[in-house]
Amino acid sequence: MATPDSTPQPRICLIEDDEIIGESLSDRFRLEGFDVDWCRTGAEARDALATRRHAVVVSDIRLPDCNGGDLFIELLAEAPALPPFLFMTAFGAIERAVALIKAGAADYITKPFDPDALVAKVCALAERYGVARTASGRDERLGVSPAMGRIAENMPRLARHTESLLITGESGVGKEHVARLFHYHAAGGEAPFVAVNCAAIPESLIESELFGYEKGAFTGAAKARRGYFEQAQGGTLFLDEIGDMPLSMQAKLLRVLQEHRLQRLGGETTIAVDFRLVCATHCDLKAMVEEGRFREDLYYRINVIHLRIPPLRERKEDIVWFMQHFVEAFNRAHPEEARRIDPRTQEALARYPWSGNVRELKHAVERACILSPGPVLGADAFFGEDQDVGAEAPTSRPLADYLMDCERDYLRMVLEQHGGHMTHSAEALGITRKTLWEKMRRLGLQARDDA
Ligand SMILES: Nc1ncnc2c1ncn2[C@@H]1O[C@H](COP(=O)(O)OP(=O)(O)OP(=O)(O)O)[C@@H](O)[C@H]1O
What we know:
Rossmann fold, 16 strands
């Protein structure tokens, strides 16, 4: 099947006069698969933006010949359909950055920043503007962390050369998602992908489910049925929670994998089967082998290529990327209710441990998108009334308290910018005046008498 080799690389316009920062960011963006126009001055940036199409513009504010923010405002007046602008601002210039966002800039990051965090933001913006997708139209990226980048990069090669894959990782990290990507590369979208959760099938039924049966094979077998092995013919069989497969069944699975043939229950003929096998587990199979709970020969048979998917807490840069990813998915489905995440909330959520991994994060974002009364997802959208998510914060201080502080600071700042005027502040925040008033009351912020 076609690999995305021929896809044109999305291009970034980097406006940065500092030689060291400019060079290291250019290198990093190229490593992430972007082409880069590195402009040292506002004039160079003007030329680049006028002649080429860019996925994202990453701009410093202080430039030798102009102010990056002013340049943006000027360009916006000339050509409203600009690519998304992300500003790199000094810590003391956050107010300017907030004003630029109000004027239409997409995001900002405060110096000094972690390059991973910048890459995560840039990738999210590139995706939002529809340029980070591959030629197939399918989103094949697994995140922006080096660990997931390597897995995604190796996938086409793995799909060409291996028939079997073992994927390990905690619950919700995306094992099945990776298995589907492998399948997509190996067999294409038309071939069957059959997912079986070995832990969910009672031991007494697992053989008939996998092997199928002939009519009359046992009481209740009113007609013949193809098992999962046969259903996966020409495609991929995904055996999730393989560590839960009973030992007796492990021996039978091994035989099918070696002989590529099987007999249905109650059947007399052998049937040829041909499928790729992806096994997944959160268990330590090696330890299970040592304890005699998993067959050693099957362990070696399925463990030709092993992919370990790290938990989200070990790849924090993916957290913001996933948040944007799921918000964008919501926005595509509900364009009239488009949401965006407050940058401060992003930072707080990136620090949260996400013990349920991508699944927990996805549900938290979906819930926030649905329940939020306005377009901006602030802390309370994630850690609202019941505070389910916040309850698991690992620090000595509850996350909900921390997020409330962030929200209080942000509201205070926006109110100050609007001279305490509540209607204007509420508009800037994307919430109703009533919601702002309720938040202020909850957060202990004083309203101006005449506001
Ligand atoms: N790269 C990704 N892009 C988009 N969604 C993802 C990605 N990775 C995981 N998800 C989503 O996160 C959720 C959990 O992923 P998945 O089911 O693949 O995890 P898992 O590790 O197989 O979980 P479990 O061990 O509990 O079966 C799913 O809703 C999936 O669609």
